[in-house]
Amino acid sequence: MKPVRRFQVHPSLPDALRPLLEIAHNLRWAWTPEAIDLFRRLDRSLFEETNHDPVRMLGLAAQHRLDEAAKDGEFLARLEAVRRDFERYMGAETWYRRTHGAADTPLVAYFSMEFGITECLPIYSGGLGVLAGDHLKSASDLGIPLVGVGLLYQKGYFHQRLNSDGWQTENYPVNDFSTMPIRPVADPEGRPVRITLPIGGRAAAVQLWRAQVGRVSLILLDTHLPENAAEIREVTGELYGGDGERRLQQEILLGLGGMRALDRLGLRARVYHMNEGHSAFLGLERIRMLMKERSLHFEEAREIVTASLIFTTHTPVPAGIDVFAADLMERYFAEFRAELGLSPAAFLDLGRVRAGDTGEPFNTTVLAIRLAGRTNGVSRLHGSVTRSMWQHIWEGLPVEDVPITHVTNGVHAPSWISRDLRQLYDRALGAQWSEKPPDPVVWSRIELDGDALWRAHERRRDKLVQFVRARLARQLRAAGGGASEVADAESVLDPRALTIGFARRFATYKRATLLLSDPERLARLLNDPERPAQIVYAGKAHPRDEGGKELIKQIHAVLRLPELRGKIVFIENYDAVIARTLLAGCDIWLNTPRRPLEASGTSGMKAALNGVVNLSVLDGWWDEAWTPEVGFAVGGGEVMDDIVVQDRLEARALLDRLEHAVIPLFYDRDDRGVPRQWVALKRNAIGLLGPVYNTHRMVTQYLDEFYLPAAKRRDGLEADGSAGARARAARRARIRAGWKDVRVVSIESDVPAALAVGAPFEVRAWIAAGAIPPSDLSVELILGRVGADDTLTAVERLPMRAEGGVSDLGVLHRARVACASSGTQGFAVRVMPRPVEEGDPPEPTLIVWAG
Question: How far is the C-alpha of 33 from the C-alpha of 644, rounded, in Å?
Answer without folding.
Answer: 46
